[in-house]
């Protein structure tokens, strides 16, 4: 009997041991996860910021000072050591985030998440993310210096990984039960592809093709005009373009394929954009130019940005970088400052591909058959067999949609042409900006930049300000890229690119400021075709009106503008509604809500009720107006907000105002009333459940962990105003991911803040310590150290030496 008991006891022990060390579904191995020596408890600590650390490959000593915000100030004797140290320090604080984002870009999430991530991974690969990263590396290899820095960065990351003890591995690895793998230059390229795709513009060619077929050309042009009547472009109106001597590409004599498609792949967030501006000394309180930048992206933890100072004897640079990228992306040095906004230019087009037969080895082009390249994508799936996806590549690009993926035609598919596949050396742009000293250096740095198209703002201690709309932009014929094109017609190919020197730009404009907020880049006088790719129409006018409102501005003005909550969109529609809507049928409760919004001052402040009423009302109104777009099995994109409001105000009897499901013929006035009643009902229901529908409670902004299933690592219900189309563009989980203000004194002085913290470790006090100040509109002074012996505000120093 005792042997039986022993056997049973041994078996139970084995089962328990197996259970504690095995991942079941989404549950991590509990034993390993809770192990007091190596599990999650070991992550509840702050990072070491003192002492001597050995890393492979350094030529000289590197000093890293940490200030009270955990910002590393890296002082190296040469560039190679600088970027090796940058890789090491970034990995030390953000390793899991770096790797997660590059694996997401590469379509490799299934490896540790399992089958739930398969569709995501297929989308990434069918959009050629890995292909584009490989092209980028090929291009960078033409520049041995940049390639050497990328490799030094990777070696720095790997030095950190090699020193990791199991107890120190970031908690997300423990949750998902996998380990870090070596960093490579290709991973940095994948990170850049990740951002390039995230900022690729609206990409609605297939949806617009369906709308053109359904509504006809005249109605389509009414719904989707290339220019709005209130356009306030990035480059001031009436700019002289007479120096441009390259003609627009001629429109070919051809027909467009008016195909349909039932569903398109998931798109980047439509509000991915930013604000930036700079004023000249003549408009500055101090006589020094002042520059500001606030990129609008998803609000995530760990934060998108990591703030650093990077210094060698030849340059000294400070600002925000992307974990995994070389240098500073949005920042300043002793001579210049720069920042970016998304240009949202149309650099992604779709082509219908006709295959010769069901082998799909050849496709029709210019009256003959051309061979398609085959790229076999092997997607490893945790707990399952490897999934193999075959993607055909044409000279346009990958055939994203075909019989194997979201298509149903055996002999046809849709190929994606995208500037992200060209291969560029964007890293060189930022390396040169980091070292730049004047306007000429800034312009020369931009020449290397390919995609995504960005509006690069600039200011210098010499007094210059400028903005360039930079990217490798196709020289399109009028209308090219608006709809699906014929992949067999050479006339539909991209014929050439706009020469870089003719990209729209301005230096030291007479008005004394430059600005961009994702609006239309130019007016109609610019000779090259610029498609209205969903350009922002409200934030830019608030910003430009602000800088036209008085003669001089100070730092507090810049802070106030970045946190400005004025809702111009509501202000342009609601007075019209108040003057035209019949309120006689409103109930007592509805009338109270109507009077609340009627008394609103159009500022989306946290204690106001008006923004919540507007949000609910606009959503209901938009849905009623565009009910024609609710068509099964047809992918469509509704008109942009400015044109929607224009139609509501000027074409109130248009057929689009009629609600399809009702026998009556509605006008815009009817839609105002019906949608208001719907909104009022939803708000009363909300109030019954939540007690109030003020903007703070109704919007409920949060900053979520990159793994959205981890609420314990996220921050919720943040008290911040703003909203869509507002300068303070903070929505529920999207907004100003980094705010920077730089005065170009000698040396420059700067403020910065972002919704997160320097550490990627949820157990660190530096994980989310900036969030409350960010929400309150406060800033931190950026400690721009001029020498490595400046100890003001330094709380720890590490010395990096060669192993």
Short summary:
This protein has 803 residues and is of the alpha+beta class. Among the domains are: 34 residues; 118 residues.
DSSP helical segment count? 22
Strands of the widest sheet, in order across it, are: 1-29-2-3-7-8-9-10-18-19-21
**Structural class determined from secondary elements:** alpha+beta
Count of distinct strands:
29
Oligomer: single chain
What is the helix content? 25-40%
Uncertain runs are: 2-21, 23-27, 30-42
Q: Give the overall form.
A: globular
**How big is the Rg?**
28 Å
What fraction strand? 15-25%
Mean pLDDT: 93
* CA-CA gap between termini: 60 Å
Q: What is the makeup of the main sheet?
A: 11 strands, mixed
